[in-house]
Amino acid sequence: MATGFALANEDLLQNILSRLPALSFASAACVSKSWNKVCNRILSRPKLSSALSLSPSHHVAVEEVLNKVLSEPIRPHFAIACVGLQFNLTATHQLIAEKLGSRIPIITNAATGIIGRDAGTNELREVKWEILEEIGLDQGENNFLTDQLDYCGIVLVIGYVPGLKVDAIPLLRPKTEPRVTMVDKFLKDIRDYTASVSDCTSPDGIILFGDQRIDLKPILAEMDYGMHEETVIVGDASACFLFKSGDDSRIYDGNSYFFDAVALVFARDKSDAFKGEIKFHLALSIGVLPFGPKLKAVSVRIHNSDCSWLTARMEGYQEILDSEGLLEDINDQIDDEYPYLYIGVTHQRERSIGLQNSGSRSHLALYEVLGGSEEYFAVDGIGIKPGESFIFYHSDSDTASSSSGNAFEDISILKAANSTDHHCTSRGVKKEVLGGLIFSCCSRSESLAARGNVESLPLSNNFPGIPLAGVFCAGEIGRGGGSASLIRQEENAAEVCSMSSRCFLHHYSTVYLVMSYTPPLV
After folding, report:
1. pTM listed for this prediction
2. What is the DSSP letter of 492?
3. What is the C-alpha to C-alpha distance for residues 49 and 436, in angstroms, rounded to an integer?
4. Over the stretch 239-269, which tens digit does the pLDDT of each residue have?
5. 3-class DSSP state of 231
6. Is 27 strand, coil or helix?
7. Where is 427: in which H helix or E strand?
8. Among 158, 155, 141, 157, which Cα is nearest to 83's?
9. In b/e form, how buried is each residue of 126-146, taking b as 16+ CB within 10 angstroms?
């Protein structure tokens, strides 16, 4: 039995070690068994750490965020960095990998805007860079048509998630067959990895980055068919990314494959003695509204392999619609000056992958309307079939503004009514909100930007001071049902853009991933 003097010394040692930066803390844990025991006690709970820098110097910005996220004890299990378009993606990725080590899965993504707390001032910032000209991005490099310095910045988030295993798994496309994306292998790799570390084949959560040149809608549909309803999937469908696996045995040959997407997979660790529970929660602020009658696709033609031309008629009528005239009428009726127009197609499919919840499953896919010519609508993406029903959706700044308040209320479910910090009570046990990630549409109205840090408010106002990081993108991924979803069931289908089905790839919206931790009952 330890004496009072020994306990006092141990408490003093814990006080000292808890003040060390992460790298010194890691060294201290190797000094002796007793020091290692104290270090394990300090890191007995999961932890997120994030930081943002807007320094115009690439090296200074990376150094600032790394120093900040590693300024306290943490053992990183994953890292995600989103960087401004002026920063070299490859150099940034290498600098982070060198600092964090070879066993940490890392994703580094080029962004048109970032959200986070300033590394120097801790001030919450939302920085959306206006894209004045089209910017071409080759995988791994940033090529510019402008020499402006406004695209400088980085936000970095790292996480310590005991009880979970994390790794980065890519969606491959062989360069010898560039039209064949290996979706089946992608799903199998995710299931195999999950099964190897867990007692099931469906992970708890996935943070997904899809290459901006790839239509991710069919990929997400396949993932939905193959994953349990509780698996939360969030991310950026318009990414330009680099990644590294945390497993040295997983080496992917960039000379043989294109990387169409990468999934950061979080799977329950069956071998870990950690008894608490980390959960992923999904919330959504939508920005599109449905309008008009239900229509039906009559004929569909694929054009240039990435868009569809279709004719349509109203349900119950045989006459083919004049698409060009209809689009003119629609634009005349919408209040927003430059609205984005979509058709929402309800796709149905029989599940056949052998999960417990088999049967028919439907989802809503939004296709941006590119224009019309006589009887044909032109939409971005393929996969629409003759006979499928759809209705029109349009972006709406008022809806985007009001739904931010809805997201705030949804996220507040995680907070006890009398809570004054980021803890809430569940079954007599305090549930801690660890932090969150934000994926927000870069095209949301400037009227929102005039209100300040509006996209981060649902998180930061509910849980002041929690670590958070976000990115502005052009295709916000958000999928999660059952207890994982914070979206209130009483909200009508129009507000959540789901009709009687579900939507995974959102537009003009903001997706929130909130991570919580519930300690074991004592």
Report:
1. 0.90
2. -
3. 10
4. 999 999 998 777 788 889 999 999 999 999 9
5. coil
6. helix
7. none
8. 155
9. bbbbebeeebebeebebeeee
